[in-house]
Input
Amino acid sequence: MSADGKKTIVISNGTLIDGNGKPPVRNEAIVIQGNRIKSVGRLPGDVRIEDRDNVEVIDAAGQWIMPGLIDAHTHLSYGNPKIFGEARGKGTTHPEFNTLRAARNAQQVLRAGVTSISVPGGTWFTDVAVRDAIKLGLIEGPRVFCASRMIVTYGSIEDEEPSWVGTPDHSIGVLCNSATEMVTEARRQCKHGVDFIKLADSRSGEIQTLAKEEIAAVVGEAHRRNVKVAIHSRGAASTRAAAEAGVDWIMHADLASEADLEVVAKAAVRIVPTATFVERVLEIGREVGQEQIQISLERMKKNMDGLVNVLQRARAMGIKVMCGTDCGNYSWMPYGKMHAKEPEIMVRYGGYTPLEAISACTKENAYAVGLENQVGIVEAGKLADLIILKKNPAADIRVLQDSANLAVIIKDGKRVKLDDQSVDETQLTFQEAVA
Ligand SMILES: [Zn+2]
Output
């Protein structure tokens, strides 16, 4: 029994994929005490598995053990997918309801084997509240590392209304049209407890809406306060500017040229391509046709081509790629179902091996949740976030997408109860949402 009165957990047998990219190996025992992994490999002499009063044994014979998944790009509080019976168009206008829904979303995410998420943007400080409630043990959920409303200028993504409307309090963007306003907003968000600031350039990257000096001003302020900075950047110029201004990671980067990516590589800035959302729109588009979809499929095809190029070039150039999905940004991105689609895309289109893709969505993604070298690896001393699978993800990476393949989820040394809530029947499907 550990100091906190919890039983020691011993995972005996099983094949270990440790997250470091090493080939799977047969494992004798993983010992978890408190919220950390005590040992991996041989069972230590001071742990007696016969002592069932103090030791819980999980037999993983014939199964695969790996770090808990991390999604480097998920939104909990955008108000999507809509819920059956909910008033249309008012999804995010009620902060109280929205917070309860975000808490529920977080639970769905954890039950899909995702033990940490990075949340680049949301409404109000909803995600900060959910993060803290999970941290304090009020509710169950993954580790959350979050931003608040994304900082935008006129013409950026999420500045959709006329200028006399701007970005009302319930929107996910907040207009700041000078470096001074951006720094003030960054300070306000830091005061309210965000882990990082999200900046956002134009939606598709056809124009650059943030100047390098503005990005650098926010980076300077945030870093001085030990807060990170991420940016939505599809354009070539904005991606280059973001890398030069010292952001911590770039989301998308699809239009970056070889020369731009060289700047990114030199600055050692990471990229979260987030091809999952684009691939999903293309899939739905093939199913229901352009008329039903409010996004141009032609533009999405261009984005996808750019993302595949970025994935391939990043791998060749040694740029660290993190795995994100954009779950929760639209009604066709439900929680708990898409979080491991990005590694499949990396393997299928990007030229990554399944083990490289597994490292990307575990070890590498730890950076996006502020826990580099703490989670994402199954090793002695690390935080005990891991999953046990009934099938081998190194043989077929798609195994990670089906929660039916999950035998056990352990987050922070605690076993997550797997029950019927792993499927959320309240969420509307895309077809129901547009009907
Ligand atoms: Zn997003």
The mean pLDDT is 93. The two ends are 55 Å apart (CA to CA).
